[in-house]
Amino acid sequence: MSKSETRRFTLKDIFDRFRKDSNSCEGGDCHCGPDQNPSHKPEKQDGFEQVFNAPQNRRSSLKKLTASLLAGAGAVSACNPVKDDKAKEKSQISWEEQFKGNYKLMTEEEKKATVNRLVRSYELRTGKALNMSSKGPEKDVLFGYAFNISKCKGYMDCINACVEENNQDRDSQMQYIRIHEMEDGNGLNFGKSKDNYYHEVPAQGHFYMGTQCFHCEDAPCVKVCPTQATWQEKDGIVVVDYDWCVGCRYCMAACPYDGRRFNWSEPNVPEEELNKNQHYLGNRMRKKGVVEKCTFCIQRSREGANPACVEACPTGARIFGNLLDPNSTIRWVLENKKVFRLKEDLGTEPKFWYFMD
Amino acid sequence: MKILVVFWNLVKDSIDATTHGTRLYHLWMAILTITMLIGMYCYSIQIEHGLSVTGMNDRVSWGLYISNFTFLVGVAAAAVMLVMPTYILKDIDFKRAVLIGEGLAVAALIMCLAFVIVDMGGPGVLWHMLPVVGVFNFPNSMLTWDVIVLNGYLFINITVPMYILFRHYQGKEAKPNVYIPGALLSVFWAVGIHLVTAFLYQGLQARPFWNNALLGPRFLASAFAAGPALIILVLAIIRKTTAFNIEDKTIKKLSMVVTVAAQINLIMLVSELFKEFYAPTHHSESAYYLFFGLDGKEALLPWIHTSIFMNVVSTIMLTFHKLRNNFYVLYTACILLFIAIWIEKGFGLIVPGFIPGPYGKIMEYQPTGIEIGVTLGIWAMGAFIFTILAKTAILIETGKLRFIKKEEKAINEVEA
Fold first, then answer.
1. Whether the complex's predicted ipTM surpasses the cut of 0.85
2. Which of A253, A242, A235 lies closest to A279, judged by CA?
3. Which Pfam families does this entry report, sorted A to Z (chain A) (predicted)?
4. pTM, 2 dp
């Protein structure tokens, strides 16, 4: 199967997938009649198969059923002479997207296939190209974040950069980061702080403290998810499979740090503002009814760059890096500054530290 | 083969029975149907525009739907209070009430599942949550436990009465060794569904208002008060409108169950209030918000005050024999108690769990018209299902619906 962007799903592709032996569909000369053998075995596992197939032996009958269902529906959409090629391809893509498996459990091949489908789907809709990565975690990398309370002045450049970088819904003004304006002398009193203010900053007698997803080592949100649509990657980033999330919002109830956001309606990002440099688990466009969150800008951090908030911060209050690299700045901060974490008594082990100069 | 024929006849007969009735019955069913249609229309708007049409937001992410779900799990669990004495202790008083109780449990469970489904952001991919076909996060997520216990309980509550009615429909006695194991299992299962639903909230360290060891037991106490209270009311209506004879003794015994449960529930409430207010920590802020309001935000105050008032009054009414044994007082107390616990287990539990938020932010919640429409629609659906089940069960139990009679009728017709 060609991996170029102009890749198209043809009838042959569909049947190749469910071909039992190489003879049945040779040369693209397919029969889309009812004579298709429902016992066609998939050549390679894709999402639907991956889900139905997990323990191999016991469900062979179910597997056959789904394979024939898929082949049947594929045949119907692909054989319809009224539809043009693009419409056929669109319906083929949406069918395969609807029944794909959980990204966490996909093989590398399947990950590439779903990314290709999404890129192609965008191209079909808008005629424009998109760059989407499915890059996995690097070896010996564990991301950590530190926040300097003395330096933050509440400019909120981090929030704006984050919204632009991560394609967050403009209509509901979704923001992953909140900046809390604290009164001097009250200690860390979130109850008395404001996270929504419209005045000149820094305000006299106040200090500022940012919160976002803390990528906990023992994350309550991951534990409660009924479908494993959210999990922690090897490099410590807690991610969401937007296509696998059923929108029950149990993770939002479980998060002690207000780290999760829900798409209450269809997210909207104007075409000209869309960040087309995307990662499957990061800033790709979300649907309505799914949960999303900060991913330490996975599309940037996995390429070795800093998250957008770190880059945008004008005061240098934000420090990000690899906790396993002894020469990283984050390690220097953790070893030489007096650091603390929020709500440590909950035992969630956030990978986000605060410190002061 | 014969079983299929009998079953087919049962289905036909019950459709026939449920589509015929008095004018009042037709009016009742028409109102329910219209309410269901309104609910469906509201839900179609929600499907179109997403959950943004509800009053929920990122800060209060569960609202009216999950509140009703929580309450109805309790109503469903309450059937056990009838099942145990009838099937296991062979208490003849309850024999007739138990079918009604189980029908109520089935209706309540279907409503529970409906409330969960309407609360989902992506109902189209709900198969992700099913065991075997989806990816089930078992045993980590309490929600997966809830899926298992709710559906299992629904299965038990459909099969046990179904078997009994099916036998009676054929004019045979039900064999105890067939249904007793199911009934016995349902006793433990009923406690399970409510405890697991409580653990759903109790297990969240992020929400101190829920993260409280009394939550589970208190769920049970309130469930065993509200559920049988509803059953008493339903039995009262059935007694009045049908030929189904329910003895005073049955209702009096049930009222005993309600009374004890309501008293225990009140004791636990006092214990909770003492813990929150005698030596308040910042973990008591949600309770403060609920009972007294916080920072001038007091949307829940009228609700919870009404609830506590009704709770106390109805418990007092139930406690004194003289009052309780007067059926009009009893019914009033049951209505008060039912509403009180609906508020307490719904609004009074789910919403304040989110207020104040993790960083002390107070965002109030107000359900929208669409949310209320969907909720009413689901309640109407539950009442509709219950009416159908109860009508068929009553006709079979009173001997008006019999398979044999049909055959005889056919023979008689041929002879004539």
1. yes
2. A242
3. Fer4_11
4. 0.87
